[in-house]
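Provenance and format

Records in this collection were gathered into a single text stream. Each protein contributes a sequence line and a token line. The two records reproduced below are adjacent in the stream.
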Amino acid sequence: MRPHRLIWITATLLAASALAGVGAPTLLRASSGDPKQNQGTISVSGSGTVDTQPDTASTSFGVVSQGSTAEDAMVRNSEEMTKVIDALKQAGVADKDIQTQYVSLDPRYDNDGSRVVGYTASNTVSAIVRRLSHVGAVIDAGVAAGANNINGPSLSRDDKDKLYNDALERAVADAKAKAEVLAKASGVSVGAVQSVTENPQVSGGPEPYPYAARLASATTTPIEAGTAEITANVRVVFALG
């Protein structure tokens, strides 16, 4: 019986060993192909900038009016805003470049906040001026016509979409140049593009500034265009050869 018992124990151990291997990680070996294949990828960020001079200005013109009743406040506000809009058009702003931004009506209370003593109506329009040399005169015309709440001008380029596309091309070229430097230092070469991701970023440039109604009596308001930067950022993944 002793030899049979030894055979049975040996068989049991072999079976247990086989079951213990179920679900264990499998060691994967690279195929013996071209050693330059499957060397991976490289991810590089790139930035492109286009310097330009703004040629378009957008300014908001608002009128705030008060009245004893809601109707009175709105009627006064409508009359005053109509004068402002007419003045903007006479100053050279095209109909298509004048757009209402918002209209509001709010009650005014006494010092205790318990009784309505009147109403305040507001109306604001935006005006786009496509010749920067006319911006100052347009602002002055709006103020002279009764606008008492002005913001801007916000300067930009009319063809900013095209300029942004130019910046994108420069960003991709910048990413490729960086990838080639890194690849050369690592002893490999840059292959085909695997993916390109755009990283939107607000372009720098002149910031809008508030304009006070008290400047209406001054000479034509000076506006300096300055320069603006249109920037694009991308991340490109290249294959390594």
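Adjacent record:
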Amino acid sequence: MSTMYRYALPVEQSEWRFEGATDTSFTWEYDDEREALLTLYDRGKKQQWDAAERIDWSQDLDPENPMLIDDRTIPIFGTAVWDRLTDKEKVKVRHHQQAASLSQFMHGEQGALIATAKIVQCVPDLDAKFYAATQVMDEARHVEAYVRLLHEKFELAYPISAGLKALLENGLSDRRWDMTYLTMQILIEGLALAAFQRIRDNAKNNLAASVNAYVMQDEARHVAFGRLALRDYYPQLSDAERDEREEFVVEACYHMRDRFDQKDVWEGLGLPAKECAEAVMQSEFMKGFRTRLFTRIVPTVKDIGLWGPRVRAAYADMGVLGYAETDAAEMLANDERVAEEFDIKKRMAQVAAE
């Protein structure tokens, strides 16, 4: 069945094209390469995997709660709107809300696919081109996995949200290669890791949890790639150039924090969208979730050197400045360990079945 029949809105209403500027950079320096990036490239080659084989697609989703996630993760849970719903309506809300969240993962991965292809084209250093080439394959695989999860298991998908669309367009239309890195590798990938983790660690459905665990294993390398490349580059910028990047980081972080109202979901379900959006912003769970989204971003922004007074003040205002002391490298290493644990559980289940 064509994708268009699974979307909550017709595809022709949500297709997206825009003009972008890109410089193409060839390099003839094949020897001046950074050991850390080449090590990451080597890991990227060795850790390639097949979404059709590594993931057990024979598993099904629960018809009443597809990913078996606690209802407290639903933004309108506990509100007057939620309490008015019948049990049948609550099942529909779970289905749509979970599908909408995964749909943004799927669209974000396509954005990463395009962004990384652009990085291969425009980044000036060969070691970075090498690693970005492995990431292009990673992102294609991630799109494949989320497409299959949504189309075969949920049989429902949502268009890209306005907030994610605006952020992607900023990063993909900027001519400067580091702005694509900053948007995609640091901000969007960092935000995605925290969102993926919520499902990986809380979903009782093994299929949904494993898809996110395996994607996170790759994304851990992607964030490390952006951190290594920009940490070398940003000290070379003038104060004015660095100030421009810091302003962008502040605006983007506020934008990402405030974009989780899921208005299209509530409207599609025939619920009072304004009341639902207000409930989302007031929800204690969502306040905590919006804060935790920055666990991966804040320490990385500090590490790459965009740590002026404006950035620190914004993070203090958002209540996330304390994440600056987080050991980002250890969190990324844990993402890899968790993915390997899913592999072990899968092998044990296969042995038990035999």
